[in-house]
Amino acid sequence: MYAVILAGGSGTRFWPLSREHYPKPLLRIVGEKSLIQETLARLLPLIPLERTLLVTHAQQAEQLRFQLGESLPHVMAEPVAKNTAAAIGLAALRLVQLDPQAVMAIFPADHLIQKKAEFHRALRSAEKAAERNYLVTLGVIATRPETGYGYIRKGKRLSISEKGGPVYAVARFIEKPQRVRAQRFLREGGYFWNAGIFIWRAARVLEEIQKYMPQLHGGLTRVGRALGTEEEREVLARVYPSLQAISIDEGILEKSDRVSVVPCDIGWSDVGSWSALDEVSKRDSEGNLIEGNVINIGSKDSILHAGKRCVAAVGLSDMVVVDTEDATLVCAKESAQEVKQVVSALKARNGEEHLVHRSVYRPWGSFTVLEKGPGYKIKRIEVKPGAKLSLQMHHKRSEHWVVISGTATVTCGQSVYTVQTNQSTFVPMGVQHRLENSSLEPLVIIEVQSGLYVEEDDIVRFEDQYGRVEKKETVR
């Protein structure tokens, strides 16, 4: 069995912590690990890292690579997001190349599962059904009349394995129901939450895509011919944007007659909004979840999250307050699902607050945007000991560097020289340059950019120790 982790997403559900370029899987929601780190850890030892494939958006790939480090599985970067059917089809093509008999288990990167042993048992039962050419989904046993999840109704029991857990045919899928209907599902039994976890043979799902979604299959076939060749990136960029954008549920599972469900109690939550933290996190004696630089006076049943700035909450009840360097969210818990409307409003007015944080972490260190205006941008840049940025050039801006602490090794054109604390240097537009910290102490500089265009995509890389030259990514 191979694991396929879907790590796309637009960063709307946990704004302002999540952003389009820093989505929910990268967040530490519960515990010390991020959601994507938790996802990888819970698969071991059932599915080792070398049999794990991560599918994500090209704009998010570098942050995932940076956060996962040595735990990084193989990464496939979609040039544009096209929903789950295309992403799963792309992964299936790669796995069939590696192993024509591969069984692929597909997991969202941003869910929580608290019962690891039960989770593994359910996957083993699902694997046996997948080897019999079934398309398998895990059905989480419903514990409340939830209206925010889709449901699966079980049909007859299938004869798959006497040793494994029960496997049932799927009678039907039900979209998110009204509360009265969800209550009826709970009374009647035989209905499960659709967790979006699927298990099937890679070759089998490609056959189903060909049968029910021939247009998507045609595009994937063109991509498949290029996978593993020098033309892979170019073909992906040319063909992938034209693929049909549809979920695997709607495109295949609701139509196929070979779909089965494995019921399970695995302590699952999709952590779908800020208010969902009540289900998975420990609260204080007043029902509050408090993190960061918060002063709370008399608030109850609220979520209070702060960064460096002090956030004072007085007498709040059932509220969500989340403060970051450049944005603050204040909303009633009951309205937490509407946070995505804030992101839509930011997009409509071209606000950067939905894209990135002011502080951005990179393999070499980090940078923070201190101020930005027409024709200029000011950053605080910290470079870790022994690290260096790529050898790069800008077409539309020059840069002035002032060393605040540490010693910088600077490449500027044909010259290589050091810049000490309280010294500065100038990098003209169009000149190749590099910033490096050869010392044992952190290097901190203030960078002043000046020019007609000061966005992050004005970068041409010539050398990079983090493998970012040929990717042409629009990040520093």
Categorize the overall geometry. globular
Q: Cα distance, first to last residue?
A: 37 Å
For the record, the CATH class of the largest domain is: Alpha Beta
Question: Could you tell me the mean pLDDT?
Answer: 92
CATH topology of the largest domain: Spore Coat Polysaccharide Biosynthesis Protein SpsA, Chain A
Number of helices: 11
Task: Please give a structural write-up.
This protein is of the alpha+beta class and 476 residues long. It folds into 3 domains: 2-269, Spore Coat Polysaccharide Biosynthesis Protein SpsA, Chain A, CATH 3.90.550; 274-339, no CATH class; 359-463, Sandwich (Jelly Rolls), CATH 2.60.120.10. The chain contains 11 helices and 28 strands. The protein has helices at residues 35-43, 58-68, 83-98, 116-131, 179-188, 202-212, 214-226, 232-239, 248-253, 277-280, 339-348, and strands at residues 2-6, 52-57, 74-78, 103-108, 112-113, 135-141, 151-157, 168-174, 191-201, 259-264, 268-269, 289-291, 294-297, 303-305, 311-314, 319-323, 328-332, 359-362, 365-373, 376-383, 391-393, 397-405, 408-412, 415-419, 424-427, 433-436, 443-451, 460-463. The strands form 7 sheets. It has a 6-stranded antiparallel beta sheet with strand order 18-19-20-27-22-25. β18 and β19 form a beta hairpin. α3 (83-98) packs across α6 (202-212), α3 (83-98) crosses α7 (214-226) and α6 (202-212) crosses α7 (214-226). The two termini are 37 Å apart. Residues 471-476 have low confidence and may be disordered.
